[in-house]
Design goal:
Blueprint (H helix, E strand, L loop, with lengths): L2 H7 L25 E2 L1 H10 L5 E6 L6 H11 L4 E7 L15 H9 L6 E5 L5 H7 L3 E4 L11 H12 L3 E4 L7 H9 L1 H13 L5 H11 L3 E6 L1 E14 L6 E14 L3 H6 L4 E7 L14 E6 L3 E9 L5 E9 L7 H9 L5 E6 L19 E5 L19 E5 H8 L6 H10 L8 E5 L5 E5 L2 E5 L12 H14 L4 H15 L11 H11 L1
Parallel strand pairs: 1-4, 2-3, 2-5, 3-4, 5-6, 7-10, 7-14, 8-12, 10-11, 14-15, 15-16, 16-17
Antiparallel strand pairs: 8-9, 12-13, 17-18, 18-19
Helix pairs in contact: 7-8, 12-13, 14-15
């Protein structure tokens, strides 16, 4: 088969071999003919009942000599060697995801003469592969030899292998690293990230991270802003009503989550000495808050904003949303806000102004000039385009995304870097404040008193960007007020926001182990 023909046949990988299962019993020779779907995987055992079948499973994102030796050693111990490829969405070691797509990785594996069949596994672990293939041997590399009792996923796979009549075998071929090759030689964006880490001395080393988190641990944070209840309603558009020209939505499930300011309470309380937050009085009663010893909630009878997002259950696309205020009309408690700020000097006062009226009439910026004010101002569907950052004349830190910046500057065409510079130059706090600008997949900028730092995008895809800007703002502020340099603050803010954008809605948080794993994968 010619290369061109093989390339054409790999476009629909899961349909290639299933129909071929009833064909001749000889092993396939062409790369495309090696690619099997789930039914083809199950049929291998039936087609070759007297043959020893072996399985190698992994990402195989950048094939190197270690992979070749692993495959050769594995094939020497079996008659038929099957390689299962982990699907793109389940490779989370590096925040930027995979370098080669699952189709490309499968094609590369199929081109190896020692490999007889290739399967793309759309599961986080190889359990389904082991249950359907029932291999005699499950081959893992030498680096897994001492992980069997410490790695829960590997233990589950080993158990599944034995339950289906097989055994796990650890090959002795040399250990090499795909991540090292990608981070240092192959992936330009990863190389840039690696250089950034070296420039600012950022590391997954325990002593380094202990120093970072110890610096954060003394902070005393006050959170002020609009509390939001996010309701995610899943279903499907079923068409248009026969009586009215209105779309019909068939609801299948709903989940309710804390949003807006409320997201930041558990996030920050994991790292700081004290978090104080002004919240609606029904927040605790709703069961969305888990009590923490270093959190002080000041409950007040102000409205909770409920946003209901209708989402395609299959494609996870947002279709439309509704907004309403719970417990009466929207109003500002300016006196309470101002008095709370005056009570004591804190490391930072974080302000989340989404334009629903919480801060109307508050003399917040004049309350205590010794406070560190970090502001995050956003327009939304109920106030667009009338809520922008220019309403605040005094602040010490601001974080703003490209959409909000262009709205504020009323400019949708200029080069973004020119617009950033103009925004800073015309700001009353140009010579004092920290400025952060997030540009999505194009990275983020940090500015302070002439210092200018660019951090590339640390993740390659976004599941749900809701709340990620708020997380960026909170982490950036926490790092700055803890005395950490601009470049490091920008990196950690970008990383936390990027990992948070992998969570649908607010159904989860970003943990220290995730941060350690992500940084380690970048080195």
């Amino acid at each position: 088969m010619t290369g061109a023909a093989a390339s054409k046949k790999t476009t629909n990988l899961h349909s290639v071999i299933d129909a071929d299962a009833a064909g001749p019993s000889s092993l396939p020779s062409g790369g495309a003919r090696k690619l099997v779907g789930l039914q083809g995987l199950s049929d291998i055992r039936n087609r070759y009942p007297d043959q020893k079948i072996g399985l190698c499973h992994g990402a195989f994102d950048a094939i190197h000599i270690g992979h070749i030796e692993h495959m050769e050693e594995s094939k020497a111990q079996c008659d038929i060697l099957v390689v299962s490829i982990t699907g793109d969405q389940f490779i989370t070691k590096h925040p930027r995801g995979v370098y080669h797509s699952a189709a490309q990785r499968a094609q590369m594996m199929a081109s190896l003469s020692v490999v007889d069949f290739v399967y793309i596994d759309n599961n986080p672990e190889a359990i389904e592969v082991l249950q359907n293939l029932k291999p005699d041997f499950y081959f893992k590399g030498v680096d897994y030899d001492k992980q069997l009792e410490k790695n829960p996923a590997l233990k589950r796979e080993a158990d599944a292998c034995m339950e289906n009549g097989g055994q796990i075998v650890f090959t002795q071929s040399r250990k090499h690293s795909s991540s090292y090759l990608l981070n240092n030689f192959l992936d330009e964006k990863r190389i840039i990230i690696g250089a950034y880490l070296k420039k600012y001395g950022i590391s997954a080393n325990g002593d380094y991270l202990d120093g970072i988190y110890n610096a954060l641990a003394t902070a005393n944070i006050l959170l002020l802003g609009e509390a939001i209840l996010d309701v995610y309603t899943y279903g499907s558009l079923t068409g248009v009503s026969s009586k009215y020209t209105a779309a019909s939505f068939l609801e299948t499930s709903t989940k309710m989550m804390a949003g807006g300011l409320l997201v930041l309470i558990p996030l920050l309380s994991d790292y700081v000495q004290q978090v104080t937050a002004l919240v609606p009085e029904d927040y605790v009663k709703m069961g969305l808050y888990k009590k923490r010893s270093n959190v002080s909630l000041q409950e007040q009878p102000f409205p909770l904003v409920e946003k209901t997002r209708f989402i395609s259950a299959k494609k996870k696309e947002r279709l439309f949303e509704t907004v309403r205020f719970l417990h009466g009309k929207n109003f500002a408690l300016s006196g309470i806000v101002d008095e709370l700020v005056r009570q004591e000097e804190r490391s930072a006062v974080l302000i989340y102004d989404f334009g629903h009226g919480f801060f109307d009439g508050a003399a917040l910026m004049e309350a205590n000039p010794n406070q560190f004010y970090a502001i995050n101002v956003q327009a939304n569907s109920t106030n667009y385009p009338f809520n922008d950052v220019r309403k605040y004349k005094h602040f010490d830190l601001v974080a703003i995304d490209e959409r909000e910046l262009r709205l504020t500057m009323r400019d949708n065409k200029s080069n973004i870097e020119d617009l950033i510079q103009l925004f800073i130059e015309t700001s009353p706090m140009a010579d004092k404040a920290y400025f952060f600008f997030t540009l999505g997949e194009r990275g983020a900028w940090g500015y302070h008193k002439g210092e200018k730092v660019f951090c590339p995008a640390l993740v390659s895809s976004v599941v749900d960007a809701t709340g990620s800007g708020d997380v960026f703002h909170a982490i950036a502020t926490l790092f700055i007020v803890s005395g950490i340099n601009l470049g490091t603050a920008l990196f950690f803010a970008s990383l936390y926001a990027g990992l948070y954008a992998q969570i649908e809605g607010h159904d989860g948080t970003v943990t220290k182990p995730q941060i350690i794993k992500a940084i380690a994968a970048m080195q």
